[in-house]
């Protein structure tokens, strides 16, 4: 039995190492994988994850946390009993427990490789679907960036006046956002084949308050291949966030590409609420780049279209009431949680070859300029 476990773990780790070596050295291997094999996982995982409304990924993380604590505690006792030459029965139990942990780690490593690590080395969305004359080294003028910005601001301003609101002026939406998000993504799949096919239903995070402290709107759990969203954040963020996380489940792991896909899915919807979410989802990235391009010159800035007060009031992460509730229930200080989360995310992205780290989120602006280039700067 012990030998079979050792062999099984060795095989799993060996496959994981080989796959990672291939991924880092062969883009064509990664492309073939994401086109032919990765799409199989979604429906298979969905058969199980759709059995519950709870995020399976969150449940798995909770179990992992318990196992981590148990491992630390049991290891301490094992050392104590070993030094005192007592607790023979416990030492046997500890040996079996650690074998289980080693198997779990081996399986998790393989799953992370299949559902996440390989995806970082595929051809980009730009290379797959955008015109050949658009390259990452394209230089754009301030005029082109300003036209794109003004278009998005104008659309956001217009839509902000059309949507239903409560007596406090906050947006409300009477239909299922998750169902419409899936429809939007499936519709987009007609233009971009990798996005076609089955989608599992986006799920709310039970720990949304804690994710709010990290300023995180959504999360893709590679272990469960689920699109999860922060249920505490302001409602206008939910459509774009759901589409963003659903893009990850189709193999687009880069954050700028997921932002771009979410934007296309939302603005391509017949639903004005979704279109509004799409425009606001990229506004801050474009605004930041635009201000930088004009040297933060206030006089120049005043000559361009401004985001209306109504749209500005919607361009928030959480409402003040939601923030009060988050802080009231917080176990850890929000500033420290956010800093730790940013450090972890930035490090994870860089380890996987994303040199710009968290700054990669804002690279959606280049994709938007590419997309609209035939219509701007003329």
Could you characterize what this model shows?
There is one protein chain. The protein has 378 residues and is an all-alpha fold. The protein folds into 2 domains: 120 residues, no CATH class; 244 residues, no CATH class. Helices cover 64% and strands 3% of the residues. The chain contains 17 helices and 3 strands. Strands 1-3-2 form a 3-stranded mixed β-sheet. Strand 2 and strand 3 form a beta hairpin. The radius of gyration is 23 Å and the shape is globular. The N and C termini lie far apart (72 Å). About 2% of the residues have low confidence.
State the separation between the terminal residues, measured CA to CA. Answer: 72 Å
Q: How many structural domains?
A: 2
Approximate helicity band: 55-70%
**Fraction in beta strands:** under 5%
Largest sheet: 3 strands, mixed
Arithmetic mean of pLDDT: 87
Rg from Cα = 23 Å
Q: What form results from the Cα inertia axes? A: globular
Low-confidence stretches: 356-361
Give the SSE order as H and E letters: HHHHHHHHEHEEHHHHHHHH
**Total beta strands:** 3
Q: What structural class do the secondary elements suggest?
A: mainly alpha
Strand order of the largest sheet: 1-3-2
